Amino acid sequence: MKKNDAVSPVVAFMLLLMIVVSFISVLNAYYIPSLKQQSEIEHLHNVEQSFLKISSDILQVLTFRQNMTMNEPIQLGGGDVYFSPIKSSGYLDVNTTVLDQCLANITIKINGTPINDLYSTINQTKIIFRPVGNFWINQSYEWTDGIISIRKGNKITYLLHTNEKNADKERKLYYPMLFPRIHFEEYQNNITSMEVNFVNIVNPGSNRSYSSNGAGRVVIDLIESNKQSLNNGTHITFEIFENNENFGINSKFKELFAKGDGKSNIECTINDKNYSLKIPDNPMVQPNVNITRWNLSIHT
Amino acid sequence: MEKDSGVSTVLSEVLMIALVLFLVPVVTISLINQLPEDRVPTVNIKMDVNYSSDKLLVTLYHKGGDYIKKSDISIIIRTNNNGIIHEYGPYHQDELVFNPSGSQVFDLGDSVTNPVINTHLDAGTKIDVSLISKNSVIYPGVHFL
Question: Which among A8, A144, A221, B74 could disulfide-bond with B13, CB atoms 3.0 to 4.6 Å apart, if both were Cys?
């Protein structure tokens, strides 16, 4: 008689093995990708938080207008879980040459001669995060002139605004932060002190972009790059170019120069988009006039 | 006497196979039941409530995250005007106004608005809005007039 006592335990063992293998397959095919998606959702949530902080940091730096550096970390890669430690990566880019032309430009001439490093260029600035090899959806984040947008393929929407009108309102709050600030102090129809502060947006150059699956960062620097004090008999001209007539620098200068009009120790004249200040050779009261340029550098 | 010593062995093997055949689906089903359910969509929603001339419109904007099938979406609006509670909806795909209207999914940048609710509400009325996908509330929103 043929002995086949072992058949049923082997069959039973094979069937149990099949259950275990099926379960592991389901884990690999369904559960782990789901965990990775969850981890990627958290990653993109962290990126969103970083963009909100960057936006607030830039406004803070521009408000204080003093030498300062803000450093905001961004988690570029994510989606790693215990069973599958492979991470996606991210690409970070700071672009100040989005438009062919700058939004505004101010050239400063002292006694008719342009001064090196004493000009201001305001460019449209974009900070972009793009996920690479992401385990969820390819959702990019963009910060453009004070507004955060989310992009997915061809679809784009503002993160915090429901329509273009609201976004435009916010943009119009951001731009004046970059405008020159002119502060007068006067006494008995004489200007005793005048401080002119310009912001110049610097091209990030070689620190423009960064790709990693680890940590990245966006650095926001505001550094005093040039300071000039004007002497008696000096004639200073601000030549303003605006890409869009309604940008607002010209109207701001007109408003400020009107304050200096009719003062005894300083002559303020407006000629189209050129604004001139002249300190006479021997003023009754010596005005203390300082012009400072601040370089705003946003880089990775 | 006839010898049938093999009967019990065969019988036990048949019983064991029967037991295994019974246990395999039972164990499989229990293991599969241990797996988590389908992930609920993760969507960022921004709500805008517009109330004028006794007309209430609630618009929900998709601000990132998963897309949702329009057929899975429903919206419930509940107003609490000084303790008087009214519930409107659930509104489904055929009643809701999607912008853009073309695609079958509610995705990034899209918006969805309820059909106009004609009601008189006082200042301070609490409006609760629930955006539901299948059986899960994926956005519970509140607004005070």
Answer: A8
CA-based nearest distance B17→chain A, Å: 6
CB contact under 8 A, B31 and A7: no
Tell me the chain B residues in contact with residue A137 when contact means C-beta distances shorter than 8 Å: 65-66
- Which pLDDT score is estimated for B35? 67
CB atoms within 10 A of CB B75: 23
- A5 contacts in B (CB within 8 Å)? 9
| CA contacts within 13 A on the Cβ side of A38 | 13
Confidence of residue B37 (pLDDT cuts 50, 70, 90): low
Ramachandran angles phi, psi of A47, nearest 5°: -65, -40
Q: Where are the domains of chain A?
A: 3-299
Q: Please say whether the beta carbons of B140 and B125 come within 8 A.
A: no
Contact A159 B28 (CB under 8 A): no
B18 touches chain A (CB under 8 A): no
Measured in angstroms, the CA of A155 and the nearest CA of chain B are apart by 6
Q: What percent of chain A has pLDDT over 90?
A: 31
**Residues contacting B39, CB < 8 A, separation 6+:** A34, A37, A38
What pLDDT is stored for residue B16 in this prediction?
85
For the complex shown, is ipTM > 0.85?
no
Residue with tokens 């884990």: A27
